[in-house]
């Protein structure tokens, strides 16, 4: 086995205290997705949206990587082949765990984006509506988050990796959000073995060859130990 492609979703960060979309309580439960995670919501009430992501940024800054994040970083370092990690998460827990190469298909809380010129820069801990872009000086700063209705980042490169994968693993993803929900079918089409880690089968769980049920902090380290033969 030469190449492992891994997709992580909100479930891997939940055990670090960062709530999932659909969890009861927490930041997401207080807002409609249409209001805080769409370009239309931002146009309608930029203050609400910016404050929402300020709160999420502060929450993520305090979170620590858990055993699943640490195990994946160990896999990247020790695997005798290539490990490609794609995440739907906008936190930086994979990087905090020590991963060198993380593709954030839905953007990142610690990034800012200019709506006028597409310039990107590190976000301050607290953003404000009308913040100016350091590139073109337009008052068009926004969180560098891919909202519903926008195209996820790095899709061409991700599909290239899926086409070359020997093993595709999905960890803590709901299988409800496309295009990520289609990655397992894409990997299978190219002949990859497929494995899901979740608390329960995802919406696309039937498409995986195997499913390991349980907390990611238990199932992922055990799997990494198997892969590395330790």
UniProtKB/TrEMBL annotation:
Annotated binding of NAD(+), by residue: 9-28, 88-91, 172-174, 198-200, 216
Principal location listed in the UniProt entry: cytoplasm
Pfam families with a match to the protein in the record: SIR2
Catalytic reaction annotation: N(6)-acetyl-L-lysyl-[protein] + NAD(+) + H2O = 2''-O-acetyl-ADP-D-ribose + nicotinamide + L-lysyl-[protein]; N(6)-succinyl-L-lysyl-[protein] + NAD(+) + H2O = 2''-O-succinyl-ADP-D-ribose + nicotinamide + L-lysyl-[protein]
Active-site annotation: 106
Stretches assigned to the Deacetylase sirtuin-type domain: 1-230
HAMAP family linked: Sirtuin_ClassIII (MF_01121)
Family stated for the protein in its record: Belongs to the sirtuin family. Class III subfamily.
Protein name, UniProt field: NAD-dependent protein deacylase
Organism, scientific name: Roseobacter denitrificans (strain ATCC 33942 / OCh 114) (Erythrobacter sp. (strain OCh 114))
């Amino acid at each position: 086995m030469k190449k492992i492609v891994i997709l992580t979703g909100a479930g891997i960060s939940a055990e670090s205290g960062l709530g999932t979309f659909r969890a009861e309580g927490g930041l997401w439960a207080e807002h409609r997705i249409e209001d805080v995670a769409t370009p239309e919501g931002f146009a309608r009430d930029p203050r609400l949206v910016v404050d929402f992501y300020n709160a999420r940024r502060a929450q993520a800054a305090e979170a620590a990587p858990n055993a699943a994040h640490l195990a994946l970083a160990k896999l990247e370092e020790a695997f005798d082949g290539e490990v490609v990690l794609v995440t739907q998460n906008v936190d930086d827990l994979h990087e905090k765990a020590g991963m060198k190469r993380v593709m954030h298909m839905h953007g990142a809380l610690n990034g800012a984006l200019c709506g006028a010129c597409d310039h990107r820069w590190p976000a301050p801990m607290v953003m404000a509506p009308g913040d100016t872009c350091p590139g073109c000086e337009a008052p068009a700063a926004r969180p560098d988050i891919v909202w519903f209705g926008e195209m996820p980042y790095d899709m061409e490169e991700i599909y290239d990796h899926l086409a070359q994968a020997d093993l595709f693993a999905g960890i803590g993803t709901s299988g409800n959000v496309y295009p990520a929900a289609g990655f397992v079918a894409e990997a299978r089409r190219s002949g990859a073995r497929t494995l899901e880690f979740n608390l329960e089968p995802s919406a696309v769980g039937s498409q995986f060859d195997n499913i390991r049920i349980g907390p990611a902090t238990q199932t992922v380290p055990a799997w990494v130990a198997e892969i590395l033969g330790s």
